[in-house]
Amino acid sequence: MADNRFLLVGLGNPGPEYEQTRHNVGFIFLDYLAQKTGCRIEGQKMEGLYAQARGFGGQLLFLKPQTYMNRSGGSVRAFADYFKIPKGRILVLHDDLDLATGRIKVVGKGGAGGHNGIRSIAQHLGGADFARVKIGIGRPPQNEQGRGQPVDRYVLSRMHSDEMQLFEQRFAVVEEAVELFVCDGIDRCMNSINGRF
């Protein structure tokens, strides 16, 4: 019987000061997915918090790297090597500045797009050919002079209640994306999910 273990990675920064910040939406969505399978991401190993469960049609390994965003790749590589999970069965959930808030887009590979967590994972895995669920957080709003909050401060700021409500409305879409990825592969997942919002 073929191994059907999948590594689901949520990106964010550890510590209470980063909870509910835009850069941590990967953590938020991964916690939701783990809860749907009846587990909590509480185990500690290889610089990450992790849990294992069956769900969405496969054996799942949930991982929240605890190394801060720009060094996420070391933990991801360690888990992928230890559990012998190839890049084709890794799915990374992360925030995306270039997508409107609440927009969800699935990609099978591609550049980092300025995201330090994705860049770190690509460096450690030896390539960027791993799947991602991009969760739009939008860019900082600008004033009449065309100035907005600096991007680094924006992504590390806590979300407003309306943003959190919008993301909660997207939980089911990301859940569907994970099930499609696990059961039918990345192409079916992209074709079904992309373009809805």
Brief summary:
This protein is α/β, with parallel strands linked by helices and 197 residues long. The protein has helices at 25-36, 72-82, 116-125, 151-155, 161-184, 186-193, and strands spanning 5-10, 43-45, 48-55, 58-65, 90-96, 104-107, 131-136.
Question: What does this entry look like structurally?
Answer:
The chain is α/β, with parallel strands linked by helices. The protein has one domain: Peptidyl-tRNA hydrolase (Rossmann fold), CATH 3.40.50. It is built from six helices and seven strands, in the order βαβββαββαβααα. It has helices at residues 25-36, 72-82, 116-125, 151-155, 161-184, 186-193, and strands spanning 5-10, 43-45, 48-55, 58-65, 90-96, 104-107, 131-136. It has a seven-stranded mixed β-sheet with strand order 2-3-4-1-5-7-6, sandwiched between helices. A hairpin with a 2-residue loop joins strand 3 (48-55) and strand 4 (58-65). The longest helix is centred in the C-terminal third of the chain and has 24 residues, at 161-184. The protein is globular. The chain starts with a strand and ends with a helix. The mean pLDDT is 94.
